[in-house]
């Protein structure tokens, strides 16, 4: 399986900032492309990573386990 770096980055940024607005600002994107990145990443994984609401984007309980793996992947890619 090929890893989508932009999807991992979007996932971590949303998780770290608790929502799309802060993540979009951090990544210097508007919310629409950020949402598209995440939707593509979720489709590739075959799971929903966030329980989206109008104000927050909490992690789904089953996907909390992906968070440390995603951090490790991003760290490894950054070290290359």
From TrEMBL:
Signal peptide: none annotated. GO terms for cellular component: cytosol. Transmembrane segments: none annotated. SUPFAM superfamilies: Winged helix' DNA-binding domain (SSF46785). GO terms for molecular function: DNA-binding transcription factor activity. InterPro entries: HTH-type_LysR_regulators (IPR050950), LysR_HTH_N (IPR000847), WH-like_DNA-bd_sf (IPR036388), WH_DNA-bd_sf (IPR036390). This is Uncharacterized protein.
């Amino acid at each position: 399986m090929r890893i989508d770096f932009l999807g991992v980055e979007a996932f971590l940024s949303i998780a770290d900032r608790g929502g799309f607005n802060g993540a979009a600002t951090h990544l210097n994107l508007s919310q629409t492309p950020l949402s598209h990145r995440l939707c593509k990443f979720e489709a590739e994984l075959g799971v929903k990573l966030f329980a989206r609401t109008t104000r927050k984007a909490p992690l789904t309980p089953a996907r909390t386990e992906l968070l440390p793996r995603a951090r490790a992947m991003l760290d490894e890619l950054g070290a290359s």
